[in-house]
Amino acid sequence: MAALIDYRGKSPTKTTSGIPLVTAKVIKDGRILAPDEFIDPADYDSWMRRGIPQAGDVVMTTEAPLGEIAELNGEKVALAQRVITLRGDRNLLAPKFLKYLMLSDGVQEQLRARATGTTVLGIRQSELRKVALRLPPLNEQRSIASLLGVLDDKLELNRRMNRTLEALASALFKSWFVDFDPVQAKRVGRSPVGVPDAALPLLPKHFEDSELGPIPQGWTTCPLDSIAEFLNGLALQNFPPDDGPDLPVIKIAQLRAGTSAGAERASAGIPAEYVIHDGDVIFSWSGSLLVDVWCGGPGALNQHLFKVTSQQYPKWFYLHWVKEHLLEFQAIAADKATTMGHIRRHHLTDARVVVPKGPLLSALSQVQEPLLAKLVANRVENRTLETLRDTLLPALLSGEVTIKQADKAISKVV
After folding, report:
1. What average pLDDT does the segment 231-244 reach?
2. Are strands 19-22 and 78-79 parallel, antiparallel or unpaired?
3. Buried (b) or exposed (e) across 189-204, using 16+ Cβ within 10 A?
4. Are strands 3-5 and 83-87 parallel, antiparallel or unpaired?
């Protein structure tokens, strides 16, 4: 095992800005997400009293969750509790290789085997030091890390592209259906922006009163559950896997993570409407309320999740309306005097939406549908890339696959 470095001393003062604090929750999938906690720079030296994290250091979560790994890029950061630094001898161990090695199934299995706890697994440093690492020659380590880094670069490029796509799609939706910017522009004689040419002659010039206040003339208001069907999932413990095909059980945790890895299994013989596929809109109505487009492969819809569909309205339209009401639904659930807040069916009816005439909605779909399709394609591609990355590492370590063969396989998908 590489050297373990525990920098932490006196607890720092949390601030809204300052030096980013790398906590266990922002280390995910081999990378560090944007930190949302910071410490006062005046506390930095006393907190990181045994040294300063360096570029190339690998950080690992020791609990809640166990075994998330990422590499530091050299930005000045502070490390929170439950985050440990791993630093190897640079003459024996390439930092980037150490990151991939710690993410490998073999090392992750060792971490779990040496962990303690029931509901929350954690590992002591004394046990962490006993984890065995298999190290090929340094030049091979660098080659392996470089190859896998190509996949990670493509994964990150797709993630950045999807953040842009989501922001653009959301901004357009808000402009069209919440702020009514194109209609406002047309009303005062300005040329509307952000709409396709085919939609321009279909936009009204005036507003009319409605239960929600002024809306574009000729548009209507209706309940959220009238533009989409909300299918509640099954109690899948009643459909255990048998000798036939099975499916991963998609619960709130899987929806949040965007993957079915490690999920429980259920019989694939459940009714077809309860099978989730890539591109399906899934909405958790209990516990952690969130909505997302599922891209984790086929799965079985568990209770506490809605699969949202419509035979009449486009997917992007009802997806964004659910997102528009999500904060409202989360507030309703938070007010519940129970251990697991939730919303009820009538809350879907109470939530109102604004609907344009059919031809205009079709014209606007010319912009929104390609954005959603590209977002789904990128996420499905990332699933393939992650599988390839996670498959190549043990094969390279065992010699089953050569560097040249791995390079050829990666060049086909990147």
Report:
1. 95
2. parallel
3. eeebeebeeebeebbb
4. antiparallel
Amino acid sitting at position 151? L
Reported as a single tens digit per residue, the pLDDT across 350-390 is 999 999 999 999 999 999 999 999 999 999 999 999 999 98
Residue 372 CB contacts under 8 Å (≥ 6 apart), including other chains: 169, 293, 315, 316, 319
pLDDT of residue 6: 58
Query: To which residue do tokens 């490029």 refer?
Result: 157
Distance CA 264, CA 260 (A): 9
What are the DSSP E strand ranges found in 310-375?
352-355
Q: Nearest-5° angle of CA 321, CA 327, CA 330?
A: 115
The whole-chain average pLDDT of the chain stands at 92
Query: Which of 98, 10, 96, 108 lies closest to 68 in space, CA to CA?
Result: 108
Q: DSSP secondary-structure letter at 239? A: S
| 42 closest CA partner among 79, 15, 62, 72 | 15
Is 410 in contact with 147 (CB distance < 8 Å)? Answer: yes
User: What are the tens digits of pLDDT across the range 36-89?
Assistant: 899 999 888 888 876 688 888 899 999 988 999 999 988 899 888 888 888 888
Helix axes 358-398, 105-114, angle to 10 degrees: 80
Which one-letter amino acid corresponds to residue 395?
A: A
Instruction: Please tell me whether residue 83 adopts helix, strand or coil conformation.
Output: strand
Q: Which residue matches tokens 């929104």?
A: 368
Length of the chain equals 414
Listed residue (97, 77, 94) closest to 27, CA to CA = 77
Which two three-digit tokens encode residue 339? 């251990």
Longest CA–CA separation in the chain, Å: 74
Backbone angles phi and psi of 339, in degrees to 5: -75, -25
What domains lie within the chain, and their CATH numbers?
3-134 (3.90.220.20), 136-180+358-414 (1.10.287), 225-355 (3.90.220.20)
